[in-house]
Amino acid sequence: MRDEKIIVTGDIISHHARTKLQERGVEIDAIAEIVYALQHPYAPNLTMAECVESVDAVLIKREIQHAILVGIELDVLAEEGRLSEPLLSLITGDEGLFGVDETIALGSVFGFGSIAVTSFGYLDKEKTGIIRELDRSTDQVNTFLDDLVCSIAANASARLAHRLRDRDEATTVVIRKPEDEELIG
Amino acid sequence: MRDEKIIVTGDIISHHARTKLQERGVEIDAIAEIVYALQHPYAPNLTMAECVESVDAVLIKREIQHAILVGIELDVLAEEGRLSEPLLSLITGDEGLFGVDETIALGSVFGFGSIAVTSFGYLDKEKTGIIRELDRSTDQVNTFLDDLVCSIAANASARLAHRLRDRDEATTVVIRKPEDEELIG
Amino acid sequence: MRDEKIIVTGDIISHHARTKLQERGVEIDAIAEIVYALQHPYAPNLTMAECVESVDAVLIKREIQHAILVGIELDVLAEEGRLSEPLLSLITGDEGLFGVDETIALGSVFGFGSIAVTSFGYLDKEKTGIIRELDRSTDQVNTFLDDLVCSIAANASARLAHRLRDRDEATTVVIRKPEDEELIG
Amino acid sequence: MRDEKIIVTGDIISHHARTKLQERGVEIDAIAEIVYALQHPYAPNLTMAECVESVDAVLIKREIQHAILVGIELDVLAEEGRLSEPLLSLITGDEGLFGVDETIALGSVFGFGSIAVTSFGYLDKEKTGIIRELDRSTDQVNTFLDDLVCSIAANASARLAHRLRDRDEATTVVIRKPEDEELIG
Q: Number of C-alpha atoms within 13 angstroms, CB side, residue D82?
């Protein structure tokens, strides 16, 4: 059905992704707190503001916004019993061997490198902060949402790790070869 | 909602995954033909029966069955206009930068190694056989299904490549160290 | 240089992969202990023998044997100072943002599904048992090896999770549709 | 050996990665030509300058620079017979089922989304332009390099696809909600 293609602009998607996160009870600050807990040991001077900024930056990525829209949609449809069986039971029961929730979340994790992947795996198992609340919630289906939050937090954390390194290096005196100069990110 | 966990047995999921593929117009033989086209150049004696057998073997994997259930469900919900915006437009329009369909399909491709990943990428771009029919269909939304078929075909193809190698090696005389003997797959 | 292609049989590779693991101080039992720790909470009756069997099964996979050969080779070459700079410093220093070690290990993790990926991430951060010993070793470069062990343990653990589920289901009475019967793994 | 950690600054790595590509016969323009061929059908006004710019931008990423350093090092070591067997034969013979080269290249492809992954798979199979030259070379081992070039080209191509979309949207009149305004990439 490519002919009747509709263009949905990035800012409409961005707006909906952020709104849906909030509607499902996930505030940016709650994700930022997980980022802070992950990165603070390596960066003692890290501020919550930097963590919030990093979460915001991650939420700009199309890949992540799309994952959020799909994941939350499936959670809501499952909650309202509007999915067919056996998928409905797989999702409402958060079946242990059902991995599509991790797969969708992982899709956007790869974008931030292998540190993000390992952090995602760690958060998915440890379930700290808001992730645990989502996982334990009895009045909402969060099968996809808790993995999405792991993904956003892992990405924001990995992004920070790279940024902090870049900042450190910028302060170290290095003889730069001219051809590199303009290439440093 | 883990407490009220429902166990959906593997054979129920397997049955539904295969049935839904058929309901959406994808026969095992059509996938096997793609596998044959991919592997025949490397294995002149390859038979269609071996390709069908490999597709069947791939469809036993939980990871793939789950991906099929989720992907086809989203296609059907989009077709019936039962998804919220802007997700509905993203899926019905098969938006070029929307990658969750590839992500879900890729999740099960990794299971068959890097050859499967490259074959998936190739099929996703070349869209041979049934994949092209699905991509061009005007009476069905196949945003997720065409990627799922790429995934199943790529997996069955990679699986065959490994099996054929194993068979070749089994026929070559090799002095095997006892401790390996029982480990040969 | 495809013309002069040499076929290295699977059992030679298998033998070398297992031998190199041992030479670098990694016994199958040490990996099996990590598997046991990961799966025991979900399977009280789990035995160490089953964990050893699962590690052995994982080590049969070509993808993993190849990863082991490449990873350990790079560790040894770095140890002996036989790599060029700056790669040598990146590997000997186990540079935090250097992710090729995780990437190579992850390549074989995907093969065992998303549970394996999350377990890998968890182990890579928690570094339990032999993984910690490798990470802290001062007389060996284990930049790649510790990730490889995380990968093998995560894979063997995920494989067990699926097998145990299959075993449970086999004991539950289910009316199976004939067409599924022969497809159940 | 974390204690004696050496910090290798990003610009040193960046310089070496680009230099090694050149030393092995891969010019930025040759990669840009592949990017142009991939994206031109979707963007008629695309210029080679934009493709070169995109390749340069991709080469800034640490993940890719690290992959280049490791991959080319292994090619050179294999070429000089300085790897142990059976790894040496696996790499010099570019063994079909050896997938660590694709794995390392894929590690940096994920960073640019699922479009990059499918483009990578396509290039890895089609082997256009410089990729084919590398694949057919008889005086150099390019087992890892050809996959690295597929990766860089796929990433630069996917990056362009997203940029071109952003540019299109910027020119379309959209009522933006204030809270989105600063978030548009």
A: 16
